[in-house]
Design brief:
By secondary structure, the protein is mainly alpha-helical. The chain has 8 helices and 2 strands. Helix content is 78%, strand content 2%.
């Protein structure tokens, strides 16, 4: 009986925690696999300065990019949903609030990404009628997508990193160098995105590139570690015994 209690965290077994970590790690990597091609290749012409919404890129490229963005959005939500039952049980101050706070911005981020998808798919339809009015509407839809890049993958992941990394660090669920990257990158990314909203900074500048680097390596490293290693067994066992 005593042994069974040490392996269970309020209905969540240590095996459940390990499985959740590995699924979350896989989903984190899915966001990379699905998120990079649209930004670097499929939307590259659309994202260039002064891009013509009606001629830049191809409809097939936009459709494939939109499809990958949908997968990215679903994976974003999936990581939070899978990890929430574990994170909320960590015995750290405000752990449950931070876990819930991690889920909420993830859902918002996915929603913003999907708004960008709708704007580009609508652009494909607008391209079928090339006249002055469609040109204006096309540029508007492209502007909507540009702003979703600043708000979705730009600002909101900073909040995700601050909340998720803080729980991982304080609960010692992964090597602390990993969440440290998130805690360093979160304020940098939030600052760069906020300055972009205020018109002081532009995406693609040195400030933006420097700000995104720690978050990039934070998300990549946490995804790989959770997939390969899962949560540290000693940390899971510790809060299992405490509960």
């Amino acid at each position: 009986m005593a042994r069974a209690r040490t392996e269970t965290v309020v209905g969540l077994t240590a095996r459940d925690a390990r499985s959740a970590a590995r699924v979350a790690g896989a989903l984190h990597l899915v966001t990379f696999i699905a998120g990079i091609p649209p930004a670097l290749f499929l939307y590259s012409d659309l994202m260039a300065d002064g891009a013509d919404a009606l001629t830049a890129s191809t409809n097939s490229g936009i459709r494939w990019g939109a499809f990958l963005d949908v997968i990215n959005a679903l994976a974003c939500v999936g990581t939070a949903v899978v990890l929430f039952p574990v994170l909320r049980r960590c015995r750290v101050r405000f752990g449950e609030a931070a876990a819930l706070g991690f889920v909420t911005p993830r859902v918002i981020e996915a929603t913003v990404i999907l708004v960008g998808v709708l704007s580009l798919l609508s652009l494909v339809v607008v391209r079928q009628d090339l006249d002055a009015s469609s040109a204006a509407l096309g540029q508007t839809l492209l502007a909507v997508h540009d702003w979703t890049l600043i708000l979705g993958p730009g600002l909101i992941p900073a909040l995700n990193a601050a909340l998720f990394a803080s729980v991982l660090y304080r609960a010692d669920l992964v090597p602390r160098i990993i969440p440290t990257l998130g805690l360093i990158g979160a304020p940098l990314l939030a600052t760069a995105a906020s300055l972009s909203i205020l018109g002081v900074n532009e995406p693609g500048t040195v400030l933006s590139d420097v700000a995104v680097a720690p978050i990039f390596f934070w998300e990549l490293s946490v995804g790989i570690y959770l997939l390969v290693k899962g949560f540290k067994p000693t940390a899971v066992a510790a809060f299992a015994v405490d509960r």
